[in-house]
Amino acid sequence: MVTRRAAGVIRPATLSATAGDQCISPVPSVRDALADPHWRRAMEEEYTSLLANQTWDLVPRLSGCNVVTGKWIWTRKRCADGTLDRYKARCVLWSFTQRLGVDYDETFSPVVKPAIVRTVLSLALSRSWPVHQLDVKNVFLNGTLTETVYCSQPTGFVDSSRPDMVCRLNKSLYGLKQAPRAYTLDLPRSC
What we know:
It is a single chain. By secondary structure, this protein is an alpha+beta fold. Helix content is 22%, strand content 17%. It is built from four helices and six strands; from the N terminus they run ααββββαββα. The strands form two sheets. The chain has a four-stranded mixed β-sheet, with no helix packed on it.
């Protein structure tokens, strides 16, 4: 196994502008992001994937229900050589606006310790076993929620015909306290 560092591929220390990056859009505020075509496209891609995944249903706001708020997170994805690959926007919820017993109950999620991963990779290398990597796009969005959680509509993408409605989540979103647990509970079980 050859690591990136051993192969001479080193990520840039900072995400500052590199040669040829004159037209890179800065990390914006919401208003700036909606006006910038690069960030707007990234936000639209995220919003479209949320809708395609049936992440929520728009419902009338119930009196006394807790509505979890959120925000947009923007990052620039770079290639291994440091050049700009794409703009990425993520709609995340603020977990500190969730209430125990109302929006979530359990948050524990089983995880694999790094030492176990290293051991398995060492065994695979020493015995010439094939190793495959899998990357699931929007992985946390695949977890089905067991709790009823309401959140506000994403900033900049409020349904103009139903602006007073809130989103009742069917699937988890990044930032929810139970997102890792919801995803691992939906994994297929082997016998």
